[in-house]
Structure formats: structure tokens, C-alpha cells
Amino acid sequence: SDRRLLPTCSSMRLALTLGVALAAVAHSSAFHLPRTPRSPIVGRHGTRAPRRLVSAPRMGLMDDAANLPPQKVVDALANGGRFAASDVAAKTGSSIEEAKRALRDLAALLGEEAGLEVSSDGELVYKLPQDVPGKLASRSNAAAARATWESVKPGLYTALRISFGAALIVSIAVVYSAIFFLSTSSSSDDRRDDRRGGGGMGFGGGFGGGMYWGPSPFDVFYYRPYYSYGRSYDSPQEMGFLEAVYSYVFGDGDPNVDLDDRSIKAAATVIREAGGAVTAEQLAPYLAPSDSAVSFDTSVVDESFVLPVVTRLNGVPEVTDEGDIVYVFDELQVSAAMADLEEGQDEEARMRARMEEGLQEAYLEEREVEFSAADDGKLFFAGALGVVNFLGAAYLGIQLTSVPSGAVLPGFLGIVQAIYPLLLLYAISFNAAPAWRNFSMKAENEKIAERNTARRQAAFALQAGLSGGLGSGEGNKKLKGKIRAAKALGSGEVKRIRSDDVAYSTSDQFAEEAKTKMLESDLDDFDKRLNG
User: In terms of Cα–Cα distance, which of 39, 44, 20 is closest to 116?
Assistant: First the structure.
């Protein structure tokens, strides 16, 4: 282990305190302070401890945008508290390095609102205030801009969805209005030509007369559809019809967009509960093993699927005496947040926090992609109007082909004639997009089901193997042996950094207490020398 042992004598403690203070000055440039060339003391993970975080001036939008921590980190730490980098990684699914950088940038932007603590063996703990998003927005233009965007984005997205649905209504209105005016004009011409036996076909005659035979698609508007606007389906939780039109065409997004973060969070919880060292079998239910990776006799036979977790959580593969591979995560076994949780919350609260970190089930289950979150009535109506729009656009094209080549229609009909290619493209795309999406969605859901099956089988293999109910006795024995070896290599319980474990802090209270203790120690030493 690379942890430093603290000297017991007062002089060495004084030297440590001075060394940490010098290290704070050397690292102060990370918090927008001038660098002072002094010799630093490097902590366990190679990070120097900064001096007291002073209030940094509010920077320009472009100046601090690059240093803005990810939104998921800001949201996860919104209520403030004490956090080590491993806490942030386990809470958000970020990598350890991303968590370190996010905490450093967050503390730099918060300035004096944030605090930094150094434990007796060099671990860094960041102390954040309550309402982190609000305080961050008050100090950073980029954070304020992002907060504004996050607040208006739902409304803009809803407006976009409604506008797309309204576009369908507008398209239908334009197409069938043009058909109506063209048909009316054609009917007037036919009546003038009756004495010549012109024989127009009324509504469907067109400019040339007799070019289209059969009922007009415009007739659909003479019948009240089964799913009508007048029928109430909406509730505060339901989607309006115009939004449902957008959902019918484009869907409602990827339900597994946060799958990687969920997977890392679940793996981090498993690792911590296992003592900091795990086998691939223990991680398989929460990652993405292939079907061939899980064997009912020897459990996992291909461990390549653990590489994302090992990389992001700074794991180290270790080979046991039996030749098995165990993955050790020392950096994950340090926590400041769990210290506060253990001291201030009951067992129910700890279980709730455990569920939030990803262990809600025995395995991680991907959500199937739904065609749409709208109810069936709105989807039927949206699809029916899409077909009506397509039929109308096709019929309008037939009528426009009867216009002499080079002729330009006047007024409204001229505008429709000019934008007709766009109207036809919209009508085709409106019907083709959901058809293609439905086809591809089925293929994607089959892959999701396969991955869920692999995780479920891995969870069953792990549980049954440990209980002795799966495969050969040799396979169960090997699995149990690997897990015992992992426990031996692990560090055991998560090391909780409590307030009394802090050797240095940027808080004024800590500085005053350290100064008082130092003065008392010097006076005691002076008295001993005087009396000696």
C-alpha cells in the first residue's frame, strides 16, 4: 500500500501541517490563484492539496465553459455534502478520472463556497454547499446559460413537437384546399363545355377532363372519424394529439440512453459491497456479456466485457495462485459520502441509497424501445391523417399534371404549384418514417432481449453456483474459490473518511483549531523545557 503513516511526535505533525500548507500554495493555480513556487507534498493519488478556496471573479461565457462540470454531476451533488472522487463515480457512473476533474472544476467555480479536506493518509474530500446548481449559476456565466437552457428546453421541445403535428394539419388543409379550388375551376369549365359533350366527371375531372376515374380522397372529410378531436383522451400525464403526431413519426427517444451510467453505477455498488475486489462472474449481471461468455458449468469463460468497468473505475487485474483473474479497485474503496450516511441515516435510508446507485434488481435490465408513448387512439388518428395527406398529395399531383407545361397558376394555386414537391416529400416521409422505425425497432428489441437474457443467465449462474445448485461440483468449487481469492485481495470494508480523520482543511474553523492546538503544543513544550 502507498498510504503514508503519520508520525506520532508533535514536531513531525507540525512538519506535516506546514508541508500540506506549502502544497496548497503550489496547487492554487487550479483555483484561479497565482502560483507560488514552493515544494509540494503529493497525496495518495498524485493530487496536491490546495489552500483555502477564495472567491474567484465571475468569468466570461467562453472562459469558463470549458471548465464546467457535467450536468449529471451537478445534479447528483445538488444537495451538497462531503464527497471523494469515488463517491461521484459511484453516484453518477462517471469514471474516476472524470469525477476528479469534475470535483476540481466545481470547487474552482464555487470558490469560497466550497471546501477541501485532506485525510491523514492523503485522500482528498470536497465539501460542497447546498443548492450547488444555484450557487454555480451565480458564479459562472456558462453555468447560468446552461441552467437557462435546461429550464427552457422542455418547453421548446414541446413546442417543436406541437409544431410538427400542426404542420400535418396545415399540409392537409393546403392540399385539399388546392384540390377543391382546382376541382371547382374544372367543374365551371365543364359546364361551359356541356353543349360540346365535354363530359367532365365533376369533382374528379381535372383540367383535361376524364383523366381520373373513381371516388375522390377528399370525400373522407365528409365522414366523422371514429377517433375525433371531440373525444377526450387527455389527462395531465397524457400526450396531446399534436405531440402524438410527432411521437408517431419519430418516437420518444432512446429509453436506454443512460445505460452505460446505470451499468457503471451498479458495478461500483457491487465492487464496494464485495470489499473492493471482484470476479467477472460477479460483474456479469450488470454489464453486457455475450451469450457465449456465460457457461453453466464454469460460469464466465470470456471476460472481455469487464474492460469498460476496469478502465473507468481504475481497476487492476490480479492473477491468483490458481491462475484465475480477479479485479481490484482500491480507489473505489474510499468514501466521504458513506461516512455521513452511516452517521446520520438509518438502515432504510442506506437501502434507498443503494437502490439509487443501481442495484434495484439481481441484474441490469435494458428497457425495450416502444413505438410511441401516445395512446392507441391518437396513434390511429395520426396514422390515418398521414394516409389522408399522402392520398391528397398524390391526387393533387395528378391534377397539376393536367396544367399545360410552363403555365403558372395564379395566387394561392401558384404557391401550391411551386411548393408541391415539398408537400409530396413531406407526405411520403411522414408515412415512410414510422414504417421504417417500426421495422428497425423490432430488430433492436430482439438484441435487447438477447442482452437481457445473457445478464439474467449470468445472475442465475452466479446465485446457483454459490448455492451449489448449478453445473458440476468442480465448476461450483472453482467459482467459490475465485470469489474467496477476490475477498482476500480486497481491502475489505469501504474506508469512510469522517470529519475527525481530516488532517487539513480549507475551512476557517479548522484553521483556528489547528492554530490553537499548535499554540498549546508549543506552550506545553516550553513549560517542559522551563521546568526541566
Answer: 20
